[in-house]
Amino acid sequence: MLKQYYNEVKSAFLENKTAIYISLFILIFSLILGYFLEPYLYSYFNPVVDDLSNKVETGVVKLTFGDIFSNNIKIILQMFIYGLLFCLSVFLLAYNGFFVGYYVAIANNLSRVLLLLIPHGIFELTSCVLACSSGLVLFNFLFNFFKTYLKDDMTLKKAFSDNSYKIKQAVIIFMVAVFLMVIAGFVEVYLTIPIAHFFLR
């Protein structure tokens, strides 16, 4: 049973590695642009940073595992679903990449910010990449479904049946993204600050 699950996960990743590479490229590219275009992004992102900081200070946003996890799950779920809307997943991923790059660029203490971001960010950003990839796979299903139905003159049921494996693969990749986000939330709440304090003391 476990071997079957492993093979399905492996197949989902191998058959959709192009979607994963595209998502990874978009994230890295947007992170770099967000960092170097910081002066031009100030008017867009600084109000977001200020608003988030105020909400944390006033207790509106609590840095608990539940709050962090639910917020992050909402983001990757949007990436998954937006794949159906002409691959809008990539824009949401790029926005997050721009924001993280901008946030690092405005840091007064770069080493401190990196120590506060990297431990959980490794899992969180990887999760975002996979969530975006799952959205692209979902769009691939939709595209092939209509292409098969219109071009090959199939019934809707037959066209859906022939391409439904892509939905399964999209869900598998998304579930891995969820698993990584669980780890990211745990690390962010319980390990990130102790790790940063250990290196900065």
Could you outline the blueprint of secondary structure elements for this entry?
Elements: H1 2-15, H2 17-36, H3 38-58, H4 65-82, H5 89-105, H6 110-151, H7 156-163, H8 165-190, H9 192-200
Helix pairs in contact: 1-8, 2-5, 2-6, 3-5, 4-5, 4-6, 4-8, 5-6, 6-7, 6-8, 6-9
Structural class: mainly alpha
Helix coverage percent of residues?
over 70%
Please, what is the average pLDDT?
A: 89
Anisotropy-based shape:
elongated
Q: Segments where pLDDT lies below 50 for 5+ residues?
A: none
**What is the strand content?**
under 5%
What does this protein look like?
The chain is mainly α and 201 residues long. Helix 6 runs antiparallel to helix 9 (192-200). It has one domain. The model has no long low-confidence stretch (mean pLDDT 89). It has helices at residues 2-15, 17-36, 38-58, 65-82, 89-105, 110-151, 156-163, 165-190, 192-200.
Name the descriptors.
201 residues, single chain, 9 helices, mainly alpha
Brief account:
The chain is mostly helical. It is built from nine helices and no strands. The termini are far apart.
